[in-house]
């Protein structure tokens, strides 16, 4: 018996972190008009990174992807996210790091940005997700040259939180697929 | 209370644009010698509606302009004016002008007043020229005449309705109530006219009344109240102050003293304005750029209510099936398995029907696209001095709305090509024994699971040799390549090709057939060229009925699943080793009924790890065809056939050569839909690489 | 509340008339031409008919004539929406049985005033 339509009969996404956090952009006036932005931090190769919480669509645990042929090795394929097709990239490989087998805490952070009125999503595979931190805009430092360690193109600044150094990722840059022109 | 009329503007614009289209096609189809009165009436009505609406919604310039057109058309339809080609042409240009006015207003831009005036002048000339009537500006909205009577202490009115007045829905009491609002009213009924009971017709009015109204009231205020029944009653009005003079109210149709309501039509200032203004005759250049009215791109769609009704019925059935299944689910026992299966089968059927119905809603007749062509052909052929007739067939063929929107430009290009390069000048045609009038036939029809659109002309056809020579010149083919005529024709769609000696501004805008083909392919369609030198050409476009759903054959390579569009599949077979050939630099070929088809190893071009087999004889060869080229896809296994919903990969991610889209399978995983031409290109590329290495 | 049949082949006019009259509390049913109107008139009883004259399939005047032939509509007020310049239309309308007319272009207030006059 052949199916007729493809319905997306999908179970609910499994979230590593219960969506207990609600993205809130706080504008606290601190004399020098500093702004507070919230970042979701995650771990990759023992380093801490952060992405703006407003650009995080959701967090999922690792799941197998449907492979796409003839794309850069770090583009792992796509997943079905409640009927939408979302590309997944392995962030380790994207940064030129050694890739690892997934573990119980490996997570996929689904990012979403808007460009020219269109919404685009991208899932990044990270070692584990940490938490949400507040960062004062004024406190963001320029990223120094790490040498060949990490591709600094994607990092637009450093922030400190709880004695950890967090590398803040430029999500829009991540969205651009190698070999394509402007994100459509 | 004030109602904001702006909320109706959009509808007014939409229907006005439609009306303009009706006018345009009516004018184009008009047989000047023996014009059909009903045809003219249709055009007239369209103009009349636009005039009415624009007046109501305050677009006075539109109203004024349309009024002149309407006047001209009115004379044509009642026979007082002969339909002339010149008149039709002037009207056609006026339709353009009107369209531009409406677009300008809709986009809140300035109307090109000079242009409007120019065309109005032309219309006026037409009007004055032949029949000699004066240009009549439309009357200003009702202005109570200025003959203000001296204020009166009141009036004495004797009001005798004619017998039938009630049958007009006019109720004397209503009029008296109105009078009552003007002043102090005393009413006396006069029943002298009442016949005996047996003669009494209850539906007729046998009474008359004697009314006295006191107050400072102008006579025309009284007249206004009885305006509607002027001819259906006898009325005598006498000023209470002046009992000597008695005047009979207007009784008869002819004697219109018009003491009040309708203002006489004013011969407008238009004429003097026109005389003063210096009209540079050729200043208004035919504006080529037809600003596309926003009507086409409005994201709304007109749907036949019957389609909606069908939809409602289907949803109803679906709900019933769903509750039945739900009930079963609540108290399920294994014995009920068969019932469950039946229920699921029903669900599948209902869902399928529902799906078809919904897609049907998005279907529009292709006439939406075809409608602009008569005008295009008319204008372009005149411009080039050619005589061309456009025949349309299958305009009612329905296509998905998105197809309608995207197929328009390619078709325009093809038709322009036919007119520009296909159809010869009348002289030439006669010399070759063809009728002076060239014909372009635009056809649309359904066949199989696709819709076909064909543009055929009886022009000079394509010269395969000439094409091959040019292709050779441009390095698109090599000396030794043997090409059939069909293959030669395909060359004109190769990028960088153009047989036009001089790029005319008509079609050679650097757009080219290659873009047309790309656009058609982007829609999932195909384009084929057939031609006969000296006789004509036919361009055939095939498009999927809908872009969103595809019938597909699922195949597996390794642990990956792909979908091959069913329309591309010729057959599938097991590979027989004898039929395989290996050509250096060209890869493997498979012999099928005398033809040699390239073999595409899916596991290779998609770099799939762990295919089940790399031995051709152990897998399956799926023979597919696209763009006139056939090839065989070597896969591990054939899975089922199913309908899939096509999702764009490019939109969400990136474009991939060999992949036309993605879909979500029943098990939730994502399967990629193969694009045959792309696979071929990949394969050729791979072969060339390996040949280079060798 | 009184019910009105509004007939006009122009959607924008229909909507405007309908909106205006509904806003004043009347029940309004729209029809797109004479035939549509006749069908609706037969299955509903309207207290007033407001109709455009120039329409395809059956114009306003033919509509009024046909309506007058129906027993339930013998005395129902029927108003024509007519343009200023068509005097003869008014006469034709009257001959067909029209109660009166409203001159186009009109604004919503004028429409309401006239309808109120006729219905109250």
CATH class of chain C: Alpha Beta
Instruction: Give the low-pLDDT segments of chain C.
Output: none
- The strands making up the biggest β-sheet of chain C line up spatially as 2-1-3-4-5
* CATH fold group of chain C: Rossmann fold
**Level-1 CATH class name of chain A:** Mainly Beta
Uncertain runs of chain A are 1-32
The CATH superfamily of chain A is CheA-289, Domain 4
Counting H and I runs of at least 4 residues, what is the number of helices of chain C? 5
Topology:
The complex is a heterotrimer of chains A (184), B (694) and C (120).
Chain A: E1 36-44, E2 47-52, E3 56-61, E4 75-81, E5 84-90, H1 91-94, E6 107-115, E7 118-126, E8 128-136, E9 155-161, E10 164-169, H2 171-175
Parallel strand pairs in A: 2-10, 5-7
Antiparallel strand pairs in A: 1-2, 1-8, 3-6, 4-5, 6-7, 9-10
Chain B: H1 9-29, H2 37-56, H3 60-77, H4 85-106, H5 113-131, E1 152-161, H6 172-182, E2 184-190, E3 208-217, H7 219-225, E4 233-239, E5 247-248, H8 270-276, H9 305-330, H10 337-361, E6 363-365, H11 367-370, H12 373-384, E7 388-393, E8 398-400, H13 401-422, H14 426-431, E9 438-447, E10 450-457, H15 464-473, H16 485-491, H17 512-522, E11 526-532, E12 536-544, E13 549-557, E14 560-565, E15 569-574, E16 580-583, E17 587-592, E18 595-601, H18 602-605, E19 620-626, E20 629-635, E21 637-645, H19 649-652, E22 659-664, E23 670-674, H20 676-693
Parallel strand pairs in B: 7-9, 14-23, 18-20
Antiparallel strand pairs in B: 1-3, 1-4, 2-3, 4-5, 6-8, 9-10, 10-12, 11-12, 13-14, 13-21, 15-19, 16-17, 17-18, 19-20, 22-23
Helix pairs in contact in B: 1-2, 1-4, 2-3, 3-4, 3-5, 4-5, 9-10, 12-13, 13-17, 15-16
Chain C: E1 3-7, H1 11-23, E2 27-31, H2 34-43, E3 48-52, H3 60-68, E4 78-83, H4 87-96, E5 100-104, H5 108-119
Parallel strand pairs in C: 1-2, 1-3, 3-4, 4-5
Quick summary:
The complex is a heterotrimer of chains A (184), B (694) and C (120). With 184 residues, chain A is mostly beta strands.
Highlighted features:
heterotrimer; A: 184 residues; OB fold (Dihydrolipoamide Acetyltransferase, E2P); 41% strand; C: 120 residues; alpha/beta; five-stranded parallel beta sheet; 5 helices; globular
Account of the 3D structure:
The complex is a heterotrimer of chains A (184), B (694) and C (120). In chain A, the strands form two sheets. In chain A, strands 8-1-2-10-9 form a five-stranded mixed beta sheet, with no helix packed on it. Chain A contains two helices and ten strands. The termini of chain A are far apart. Chain A has helices at 91-94, 171-175; strands at 36-44, 47-52, 56-61, 75-81, 84-90, 107-115, 118-126, 128-136, 155-161, 164-169. By secondary structure, chain B is of the alpha+beta class. Chain B folds into five domains: 5-131, Four Helix Bundle (Hemerythrin (Met), subunit A); 152-248, ACT domain (Alpha-Beta Plaits), CATH 3.30.70; 305-361; 365-544, Histidine kinase-like ATPase, C-terminal domain (Heat Shock Protein 90, 2-Layer Sandwich), CATH 3.30.565; 549-693, CheA-289, Domain 4 (OB fold (Dihydrolipoamide Acetyltransferase, E2P)), CATH 2.40.50. In chain B, the strands form five sheets. In chain B, strands 15-19-20-18-17-16 form a six-stranded mixed beta sheet. In chain B, helix 9 (305-330) runs antiparallel to helix 10 (337-361) and helix 13 (401-422) packs antiparallel against helix 17. Chain B is elongated. Residues 131-149, 244-298 and 501-510 of chain B have low confidence and may be disordered. With 120 residues, chain C is of the alpha/beta class. Chain C contains five helices and five strands. In chain C, strands 2-1-3-4-5 form a five-stranded parallel beta sheet, with helices on both faces. In chain C, helix 1 (11-23) packs across helix 5, helix 2 runs parallel beside helix 3 (60-68) and helix 3 (60-68) runs parallel beside helix 4. Chain B binds chain C through residues 1-3, 5, 7-9, 11-12, 14-15, 42, 44-45, 48-49, 51-53, 55-57, 63, 136, 138-139, 141-142, 166-171, 174, 177-178, 203, 227-228, 231-232, 253, 262, 265, and chain C through 9-13, 15-16, 19-20, 23-24, 52, 54-56, 68, 74-78, 81, 83-85, 87, 91, 94, 97-101, 103-109, 112, 117-118, 120.
């Amino acid at each position: 018996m052949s199916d007729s339509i493809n319905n997306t009969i999908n179970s609910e996404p499994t979230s590593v972190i219960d969506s207990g956090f609600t993205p809130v952009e706080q504008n606290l006036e601190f004399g020098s008009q500093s702004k507070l932005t919230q970042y979701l931090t995650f771990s990759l190769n023992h380093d801490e990174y952060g992405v703006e919480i407003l650009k995080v669509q959701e967090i999922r645990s690792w799941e197998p992807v449907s492979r796409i042929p003839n794309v850069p090795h770090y583009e792992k394929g796509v997943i079905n996210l409640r009927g939408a097709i979302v590309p997944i990239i392995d962030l380790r490989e994207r940064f030129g790091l050694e890739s690892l087998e997934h573990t119980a805490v490996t997570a996929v952070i689904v990012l979403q940005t808007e460009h020219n009125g269109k919404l685009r999503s991208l899932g990044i595979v990270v070692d584990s997700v940490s938490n949400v931190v507040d960062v004062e805009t004024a406190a963001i430092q320029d990223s120094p040259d790490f040498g060949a360690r990490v591709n600094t193109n994607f990092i637009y600044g450093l922030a400190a939180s709880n004695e950890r150094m967090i590398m803040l990722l430029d999500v829009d840059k991540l969205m651009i697929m190698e070999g394509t022109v402007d994100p459509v | 209370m004030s109602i904001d009329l702006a909320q109706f503007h959009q509808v007014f614009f939409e229907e006005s644009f439609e009306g303009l289209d009706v006018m345009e096609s009516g004018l184009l189809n008009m047989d000047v010698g023996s014009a059909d009165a009903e045809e003219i009436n249709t055009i007239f009505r369209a103009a009349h509606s636009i005039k009415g609406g624009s007046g109501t919604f305050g677009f006075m310039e539109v109203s004024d302009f349309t009024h002149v057109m309407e006047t001209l058309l009115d004379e044509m339809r009642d026979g007082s004016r002969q339909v002339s080609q010149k008149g039709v042409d002037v009207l056609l240009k006026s339709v353009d002008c009107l369209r531009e006015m409406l677009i300008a207003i809709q986009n809140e831009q300035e109307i090109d007043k000079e242009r409007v005036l120019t065309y109005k002048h032309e219309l006026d000339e037409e009007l004055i020229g032949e029949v000699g009537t004066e240009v009549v500006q439309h009357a200003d909205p009702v202005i109570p005449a200025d003959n203000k009577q001296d204020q009166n202490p009141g009036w004495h009115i004797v009001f005798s309705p004619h017998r039938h007045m009630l049958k007009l829905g006019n109720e004397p009491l209503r009029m008296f109530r109105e009078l009552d609002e003007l002043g102090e009213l005393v009413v006396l009924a006069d029943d002298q006219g009442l016949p005996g009971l047996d003669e009494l017709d209850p539906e007729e009015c046998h009474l008359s009344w004697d009314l006295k109204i006191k107050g400072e009231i102008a006579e025309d205020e009284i007249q206004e109240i009885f305006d509607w029944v002027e001819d259906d009653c006898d009325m005598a009005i006498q000023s209470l102050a002046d009992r000597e003079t008695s005047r009979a109210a207007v009784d008869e149709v002819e004697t219109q003293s018009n003491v009040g309501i309708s203002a006489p039509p004013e011969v407008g200032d238009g004429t003097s304005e026109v005389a003063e203004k210096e009209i540079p005759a050729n200043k208004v250049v035919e504006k080529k750029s037809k600003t596309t009215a926003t009507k086409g791109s409005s994201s709304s769609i007109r749907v036949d209510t019957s389609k909606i009704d069908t939809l409602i019925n289907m949803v109803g059935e679906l709900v019933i099936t769903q509750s039945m299944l739900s009930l079963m689910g609540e108290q399920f026992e294994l014995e009920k398995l068969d019932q469950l299966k039946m229920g699921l089968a029903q669900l599948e059927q209902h869902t399928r029907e529902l799906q078809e119905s919904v897609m049907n809603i998005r279907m529009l007749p292709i006439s939406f696209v075809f409608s602009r062509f008569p005008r295009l052909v008319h204008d372009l052929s005149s411009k080039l001095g050619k005589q061309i007739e456009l025949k349309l067939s299958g305009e009612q063929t329905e296509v998905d709305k998105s197809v309608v929107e995207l197929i328009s430009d390619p078709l325009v290009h093809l038709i322009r090509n036919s007119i520009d390069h296909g159809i010869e000048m009348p002289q030439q045609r006669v010399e070759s024994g063809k009728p002076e009038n060239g014909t372009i036939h635009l056809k649309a029809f359904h066949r199989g699971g696709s819709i076909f659109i064909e543009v055929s002309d009886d022009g000079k056809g394509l010269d395969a040799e000439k094409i091959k020579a040019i292709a050779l010149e441009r390095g698109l083919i090599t000396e030794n390549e043997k090409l059939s005529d069909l293959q030669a024709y395909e060359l004109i769609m190769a990028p960088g090709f153009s047989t036009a000696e001089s790029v005319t501004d008509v079609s050679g805008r650097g757009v080219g057939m290659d873009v047309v083909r790309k656009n058609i392919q982007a829609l999932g369609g195909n384009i084929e060229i057939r031609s006969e030198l000296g006789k004509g050409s036919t361009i055939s476009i095939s498009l999927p009925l809908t872009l969103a759903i595809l019938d597909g054959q699922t195949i597996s390579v390794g642990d990956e699943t792909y979908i091959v569009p069913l329309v591309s599949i010729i057959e599938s077979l097991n590979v027989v080793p004898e039929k395989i050939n290996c050509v250096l630099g060209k890869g493997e070929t498979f012999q099928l009924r005398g033809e040699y088809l390239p073999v595409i190893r899916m596991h290779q071009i998609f770099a799939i790890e762990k295919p089940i087999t790399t031995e051709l004889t152990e897998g399956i060869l799926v023979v597919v065809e696209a763009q006139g080229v056939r090839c065989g896809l070597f896969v591990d296994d054939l899975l089922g056939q199913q309908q899939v919903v096509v999702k764009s990969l490019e939109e969400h991610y990136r474009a991939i050569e060999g992949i036309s889209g993605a879909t979500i399978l029943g098990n939730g995983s994502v399967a990629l839909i193969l694009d045959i031409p792309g696979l071929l290109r990949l394969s050729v590329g791979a072969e060339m690489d390996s040949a280079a290495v060798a | 509340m009184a019910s009105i049949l509004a007939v006009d082949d122009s959607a924008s006019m229909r909507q405007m008339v309908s909106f205006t009259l509904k806003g004043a509390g009347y029940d309004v049913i729209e029809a797109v031409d004479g035939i549509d109107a006749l069908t609706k008139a037969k299955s509903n009883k309207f207290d007033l008919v407001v109709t455009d004259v120039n329409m395809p399939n059956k114009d306003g005047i033919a509509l009024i004539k046909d309506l007058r032939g129906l027993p339930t509509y013998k005395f129902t007020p029927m108003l024509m929406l007519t343009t200023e310049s068509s005097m003869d239309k008014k006469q034709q309308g009257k001959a067909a049985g029209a109660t009166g007319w409203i001159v186009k272009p009109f604004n919503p207030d004028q429409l309401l005033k006239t309808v109120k006059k006729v219905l109250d």
